[in-house]
Design a protein that fits this description.
- The protein has about 325 residues and is an alpha/beta fold.
- The chain has three domains: about 45 residues, lambda repressor-like DNA-binding domains (434 Repressor (Amino-terminal Domain), Orthogonal Bundle), CATH 1.10.260.40; about 130 residues, Rossmann fold; about 130 residues, Rossmann fold (3-Layer(aba) Sandwich).
- About 45% of the residues lie in helices and about 15% in strands.
- Strands 2-1-3-4-5-11 form a six-stranded parallel sheet, sandwiched between helices. A four-stranded parallel sheet has the order 7-6-8-9. A two-stranded antiparallel ribbon has the order 10-12.
- The longest helix has 16 residues.
């Protein structure tokens, strides 16, 4: 038999006081004596009283819940971002509702509607690789629900962004390869509908140009994670007339795949081919050889996004601004380049 939930009426009856007195004691009202408040709180704990959060939320018109919509959990980057979000949310007294799209636009739209129906107070979102239409995110803005983009986003709405300095980080990686003597530097590029991919490509191109290294279109190929296609692409880069002597991958996952493919071809890293990644994901420091990369500060990104969102919640919609906060991604030199 289920036990009925304890209410303020039950506490009031046990203490022989009014329910309004119990309510004032539980909500910290100053219009009550310290002895009465102590008696109420002790009885509440003894009776295992739980405040009706749903009723409180209905009265305050807030859920104290933040929606988080991210593309994947396969790399270590977004788990780190969510840790930062949860830490800051807990400090500020907010709950977090996390959903991931598996890099599917259709799933992202569906989950955003779920979060909207759950009446979240705000949304933190990192768009999927397929996302080009942001109408599902604009719905939040139209309802007065603040949105902050993580690691990319859209300029079509008043929504702040927290990003990594992708251009500068890519530039530093390629400059490092050039300084180590590499001249035929290939790039495994990301989806060009994503801001982060375009910035990394531009950093790569500008580093080549500023160091008087020719840009070769044949050395820029889209990253395809399919094992057969990936090996074919790497083999092609290393078997053309003048083969690539270095590879700048869009992220660490692609870089680690490249290391495996190069070893399979019987080549030495970094002597024959150097490899650099992006992100400093789990495993980057234990793969053989250890991967040269840049560190994406995931937890810092999550915390910074929460701070921006809290600032928006304290303001009128007319005061919102689409600011961009850029975080540094530091170069980490290891054995692969």
């Amino acid at each position: 038999m289920m036990k009925n939930q304890v209410t303020i009426y039950d506490i009031a009856r046990h203490l022989n006081i009014s329910k309004s007195t119990v309510s004032r004691a539980l909500t910290g009202s100053p219009n009550i004596s310290s002895d009465t408040r102590r008696n109420v709180l002790e009885m509440a704990e003894k009776m295992d009283y739980q405040r009706n959060i749903l009723s409180i939320n209905l009265i305050e018109k807030k859920t104290h819940t933040i929606g988080v919509l991210i593309p994947e959990f396969t790399s270590s980057f977004y788990p780190q971002v969510t840790v930062g979000i949860q830490q800051e949310a807990a400090r500020l007294g907010y709950n977090v509702m996390i959903s991931f799209s598996n890099n599917s636009y259709e799933t992202e739209v569906h989950h955003s509607q779920m979060l909207l129906s759950s009446q979240v107070d705000g949304l933190l979102v990192a768009p999927s690789k397929e996302t080009q239409n942001f109408e599902h995110i604009k719905k939040f803005i139209r309802r007065g629900i603040p949105v902050v983009f993580l690691n990319g986003g859209s300029d079509e709405m008043i929504a702040p962004k927290v990003i990594v300095n992708d251009y500068d980080a890519a530039f530093s990686l390629v400059a490092h390869l050039i300084k180590s003597g590499k001249r035929r530097i290939a790039h495994l590029s990301g989806p060009q509908n994503m801001v982060t991919s375009r910035k990394r490509l531009n950093g790569y191109l500008d580093a080549l140009k500023q160091h008087d290294v020719p840009v070769c279109d044949e050395l820029i190929i889209p990253y395809d994670s399919n094992a057969i296609k990936f090996f074919r692409n790497i083999s092609g880069l290393l078997n053309i007339g003048t083969p690539a002597d270095a590879i700048f991958a869009i992220d660490d996952q692609a870089a680690i795949q490249a290391i495996a493919a190069i070893k399979r071809l019987g080549l030495s890293i970094p002597k024959d081919v150097a490899v650099v990644g992006f992100g400093n994901f789990y495993g980057a420091d234990i793969v053989e050889p250890a991967l040269t990369t840049v560190n994406q500060p995931g937890e810092d990104m999550g915390r910074a996004a929460m701070v921006l969102l809290m600032g928006m919640l304290k303001k009128n919609v007319s005061e919102w601004r689409a600011v961009t906060k850029s975080l540094m991604a530091d170069l980490i030199i290891r054995d692969s380049a």
